[in-house]
Structure formats: structure tokens, C-alpha cells
Amino acid sequence: MELLLSVARDASLGTDYRERMEAIAATLRVLVPASALSVMVVGARGPTHAFFHNNDPANLEHYVAYYRSFDPMGHLIPQGSGEPRSLSDFCTDRNFGCDPFTGEFLPPQGIRHILGLAYRLPERRRLALAVHREASLGDFTLHERELIRLAAPDIGRAVMGCLLRERLEALSAPAGADGASGALVLDALGGVVQATPGALALCQRLANAAGFPAEPLVADAQRLVSAGRESDALVRWLPLGDGGFLRCESCLLGGGAEGRVLCILRRAGPHEAAAGHELLRAAKLTPREREVALLAVEGLSNSEIAHALRISAPTVSSHLARVYKKVGVHGRTELARRVLHGTHDDSGDAEAGGGPYPS
């Protein structure tokens, strides 16, 4: 228990990613004996933050670029379930060495056993933690799995603290303070914990804005915290007073343990919205279907649309089903991409958990 508390304390040490991971690794290797420890943040284009204690971080880049596709545990990263699993769960002694990952990648590093888990992070990223052992140390026990599971939220909190600091610093810089992008950190009740100048400027431009932050963002924060660690990101598009739209992506911070939500804001210009309106006209929507579609793009749920248009929720569902068919999309998120950006590319959502609108 004392070592677990030490991991929690170490999670707040250091000012950057590497310093925090070094502090955690020293304690974690006492808690669970290991030859090496890796912690990396994986994005769509590979690792953005790589730490490999007692090993070369470049090996993590090689892993993501090539060997991950052969890793029997590789599917755990996109899943991001937060549950620790061992290499031996997927690869028996008899099969070890029969694929490029266990036959080419691990032996030069002296790695025989791996205990790993992955968490979902904002912006479709994953936090991948792995404890590595040489053969002489033996495989991981069920008790050691439980220790890693208990320590993982504090490691996630340390990583998210670093990523959040980097993001807020970037969005607070002159280039990010022009009202085109910004970020908010909200608590479990939707109260503002931290806001960048860009976020303040954007929220002031919302059409029919009542209070700060906007009520839909408060509702999303409350919903995410209530749902807990397994919840996906929530994406909304809110109308701005100048005819543009504000894209708002809200995600739990640190796996939800802190009860904090990060909301990343980005302005979609009027030209983007105009292209989307033309798309709806070309789809030959009825006037009512067009009203429902635009309210859905703004982020309103079915019940909110029903209240706004004074129709029933089942009627809203029927209208949306016809809208999706006419526009050629499968749901709200793809509809919003088509309307706001003129594209229906939804690559990455299924793997990384980019969630749909609230319904």
C-alpha cells in the first residue's frame, strides 16, 4: 500500500513528461520487479510521447511503425480498456518466437514477458503502459496484475497532466489566442477549472449564448463524469453568431479519476457551413427534415429537437433516418462532418472511440 501511495505522489513530480515518468518508473519497478518499463502516447501518426525506462525509446517508434501489427497484444492499444493483460494470455511458450514481434523484436532487448494495458485519451490517442521482464524473472502473477491495475490511474493522471499543460500552453500562445481554437477544463458539475483566452473568445461568440460555459458543454461534462472511464468522447457543433460553427470535443481527463473534463474548441468558418447548407439542398430534404438536420448538427439531442420543434421524439428519429439516407451517412457525427466540412470521412472513430452526439 505504501508503494502504491508513492506512485500516486510521484505522479505529480517533475515538470515534463520524461521527468514524471522517471519518478514513477523508479517506484513502479520496486512494486512490480521488471527489466524495463515503457509508457507511450499513441496518436494516429504514431507515438507523440515515448518513454522507455532502461531501454531505447526509438524501439517504441519501431514497434508502432512495424511490429505492432504482429504483436499478439497489439489490439489492446486501440481498445483502451484499462485492463492489464500478459503476453502469455495470447502467446504460449510453444508459439513464442514464431512471429516477427516475439522472434525478431523482443529477443535483442532481452524481453520475454510483458504485462500491458492501455487507456483512452482525448483526441483519439491512447496511453500504452507495459512492464517488461527477462526470462529469469518469470511471468507476472495475478497479484502483480492487480497492483498494475491499481497504479495505472495515477500514471494516467501524470501523463494527462503533462499533455494538458502542453495543450493549454499552445492554445494560450498568441497563435492560439485569436479565437480560432481554445480549451476548457470543467469539473464534474460543469464548472470552469481552467480556460484559455481562445476558449473565452469563442464562447463569447456563440449565438444565443446564455452563461459561461455554454449549457450543452456543461451537460456533456456531467454526462462524461457520470458515465466514468469507459465513456467515449462527445462531439458537438454549436452555432456562432457570425454564421459559423464551433466544434466542441469533450473527453474525460486521466481516465475519469479526477472528475475533470477537457473540452477542445475549434471554429469552423462560415464558408464551411455554407458548403454544408448546399449539400442539404442537393439532398432534397423537406423543410422539416432540413430543420431537424441543422438542429442535430448543432448538437441537440432527439428530445431537445422535439422540444424545439414541438414534435415527438419518435418523429424526430423518423426524420433523422430519412436525412441519413438522403445525405448518405450513417449517423450524427458523419452528418455533421458532411455539413460542416463537405466530407464523410469517418476514419479513426471506430478504433479510437470518437463518440457520437448525445441522443
Describe, in plain words, how this protein is organized in 3D:
Helix content is 43%, strand content 19%. It is α+β, with helices and mostly antiparallel strands and 359 residues long. A 5-stranded antiparallel sheet has the order 2-1-5-4-3, sandwiched between helices. β1 (36-43) and β2 form a beta hairpin. α1 (2-10) runs antiparallel to α2 (17-31). It is elongated, with a radius of gyration of 23 Å.
Poorly predicted regions: 343-359
- Record field, number of beta strands: 10
Strand content: 15-25%
Secondary structure category = alpha+beta
- The string of secondary-structure elements, in order, is HHEEHHEHEEHEEHHEEEHHHHHH
C-alpha-based Rg, rounded: 23 Å
* CATH-assigned homologous superfamily of the largest domain: GAF domain
Count of DSSP-assigned helices: 14
- What is the end-to-end distance? 42 Å
* Overall CATH architecture of the largest domain: 2-Layer Sandwich
Average pLDDT reading: 78
- Main CATH class of the largest domain: Alpha Beta
Question: And the CATH topology of the largest domain?
Answer: Beta-Lactamase
Number of domains: 3
- In the sheet with the most strands, the strands line up as 2-1-5-4-3
Q: Which sheet architecture does the biggest sheet show?
A: 5 strands, antiparallel
Sum up the overall morphology in one term.
Answer: elongated
